[in-house]
């Protein structure tokens, strides 16, 4: 049986274990000046600690592929050669800690230009340093200004931006890139019929709504090294169809299964299966609220899947891998609370923690 602390090989890359750090925004990048979008000393300490703490892969948070693709003015961004050196230092620190360095490439779409959560998470207007948000249609995220509907030329620019950022990520030394198509951001907003009301080739049918995501996959895969994996983060559901009082057609597990199959054909190596984010929704409190949907996608699409969401118990993480519900687990809040959660989990499960020599005294 596969163990959560056994290695996994995707294309030509072997990841030392299946406990991975989930991408979680910290809203701590440089916000202006010549260092805009670059990682800071905070990021270096934050991510390298989780690598040294035993994670097999460390996924750097949502990184904007264009200035207007950031969620907030304090988001990371990778759209310029001038940003590569700082990201290279971060990738190197993760690798030195024993983990595989990965980065999530993102465009915030209609949820862009907001303050960090601890400043209220409210929209930032252009006079205060914000920018015009964009989406597939002029359907706003509740409480936010209406976005501009992307033109065909702007859609082509988005595709090119993802490819350009992937090239820069490769230069910086990252070994995995993840395309962010979840949580109501730009790519997800094209996928869902709730936010995508277009009547052209990017709207209407599932095939049309998936067109932009698949174009981004093709563009990224074309510039990313053949021997390195590309991940796709998705929301398996908008949590709208599960509400009996809401009869709107929304994004579903069934849609996700179709998308995962198409993505696999285009070179996606693993689906990072999250959920929600398109608009506020009632989400179940059960432990397996999200993991169960990840398992369905894995079983029905044949694509390797990483589960995420409320995984804080080492025994349950091990069970998910052992029972073929997932190929890996992304750990979020538990790793925010404890940088060494992975090594502690290994010890609890009777596996060998991956201590660096500098920490041998802890054995």
UniProtKB/TrEMBL annotation:
Q: Which SUPFAM superfamilies match?
A: FMN-linked oxidoreductases
Q: Name one Pfam family in it.
A: Oxidored_FMN
| Ranges where the NADH:flavin oxidoreductase/NADH oxidase N-terminal domain occurs | 4-347
Instruction: State the source organism's domain of life.
Output: Bacteria
Citing just one GO molecular function, the answer is:
NADP binding
| Cofactor section | FMN
Keyword annotations: Flavoprotein, FMN, NADP, Oxidoreductase, Plasmid
Q: Which Gene3D superfamilies does the annotation name?
A: Aldolase class I
Question: Has keyword Flavoprotein?
Answer: yes
Which ranges of the sequence are coiled-coil? none
Supply the name of the protein.
NADH:flavin oxidoreductase/NADH oxidase
Task: Tell me which species this is from.
Answer: Arthrobacter sp. K5
């Amino acid at each position: 049986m596969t163990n959560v602390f056994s290695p996994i090989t995707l294309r030509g890359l072997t990841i030392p274990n299946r406990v991975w750090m989930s991408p979680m925004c910290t809203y701590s990048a440089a916000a202006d000046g010549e260092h805009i979008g670059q990682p800071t000393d905070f990021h270096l300490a934050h991510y390298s600690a989780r690598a040294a703490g035993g994670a097999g892969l460390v996924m750097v948070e949502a990184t904007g592929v264009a200035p207007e693709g950031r969620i907030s003015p304090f988001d990371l961004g990778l759209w310029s050669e001038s940003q590569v050196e700082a990201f290279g230092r971060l990738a190197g620190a993760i690798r030195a800690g024993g983990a595989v360095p990965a980065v999530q490439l993102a465009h915030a779409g209609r949820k862009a230009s907001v303050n960090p959560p601890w400043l209220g998470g409210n929209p930032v207007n252009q006079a205060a340093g914000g920018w015009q948000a964009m989406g597939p249609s002029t359907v706003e995220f509740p409480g936010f200004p209406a976005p501009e509907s992307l033109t065909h030329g702007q859609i082509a620019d988005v595709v090119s931006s993802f490819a350009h950022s992937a090239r820069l990520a490769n230069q910086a030394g990252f070994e995995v890139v993840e395309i962010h198509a979840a949580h109501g951001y730009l790519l997800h907003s094209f996928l869902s019929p709730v936010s995508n009301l277009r009547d052209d080739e990017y709207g209407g049918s599932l095939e049309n709504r998936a067109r932009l995501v698949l174009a981004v996959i093709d563009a990224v895969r074309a510039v990313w090294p053949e021997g390195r994996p590309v991940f796709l983060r998705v929301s398996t559901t908008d949590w709208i169809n599960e509400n009996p009082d809401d009869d709107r057609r929304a994004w579903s597990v069934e849609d996700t299964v179709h998308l995962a199959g198409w993505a696999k054909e285009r070179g996606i190596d693993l689906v990072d299966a999250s959920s929600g984010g398109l608009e506020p929704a009632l989400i179940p409190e059960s432990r397996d609220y999200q993991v169960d949907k990840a398992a369905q996608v894995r079983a029905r699409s044949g694509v390797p899947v990483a589960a995420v969401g409320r995984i804080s118990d080492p025994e349950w993480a091990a069970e998910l891998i052992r029972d073929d519900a997932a190929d890996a687990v992304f750990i979020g809040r538990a790793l925010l609370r404890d940088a060494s959660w992975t090594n502690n989990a290994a010890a609890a499960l009777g596996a060998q923690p991956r201590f660096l020599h500098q920490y041998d005294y802890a054995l």
